Amino acid sequence: MRARGHGFGAFATVVVLITGIALAAEVRAAPAPAEDVPATAPAAVEPEDFGASCRTVVQGSRVTAHCQNPYPRTDRVRLHVECDRWWDVDTDSAPMEVGPADYAQVSGRCWKEVRSAWVTHQPADRAPEPAPVRGS
After folding, report:
1. What is the chain's alpha carbon radius of gyration, rounded to the nearest angstrom?
2. pLDDT 10s digit of each residue in the chain, 136 long?
3. Residues in contact with 95: Cβ distance below 8 Å, sequence separation at least 6, in sequence order
4. Closest of 123, 122, 121 to residue 54, by C-alpha
5. Under 8 Å CB-to-CB from 26, ≥6 apart: which residues?
6. What is d(CA 119, CA 117) in angstroms, rounded to the nearest whole number?
7. Contact, 79 vs 119, CB < 8 A?
8. Is the dihedral of CA 16, 22, 26, 29 positive or negative?
9. Angle at 126 between CA 92 and CA 103, to 5 degrees
């Protein structure tokens, strides 16, 4: 009896393996479903060609940002300087526009040590063109 029990178990194992291989072959042979794009799929976002490349240099208590804009849109950059001492006033520079293929240098300072400095970017909106004046 013992030999029969092992023989049936081996037979059942072989049948399960063959069935699994046959099913895997069918799944591979089945055609791929048509790719329907759902109506709610988000549109592909293209990276925006915007933003000057800026490098900040700290020398003692002075900070200088060197910015170069390789893109066709004008970038408005500002240098922000955070001073290390609690009594030293942190500064933000006035916005400076960096046109396409243009270079700008923005500077700031602390009275003592500089803790950190960074540059922020904002697209420069074009001023609306004046409306034509009609003669009466």
Report:
1. 34
2. 454 556 666 666 666 556 656 555 554 554 555 555 455 555 556 566 788 999 999 999 999 999 999 999 999 999 999 999 999 999 999 999 999 999 999 999 999 999 999 999 999 875 545 555 666 4
3. 76, 77, 78, 122
4. 121
5. none
6. 7
7. yes
8. positive
9. 55
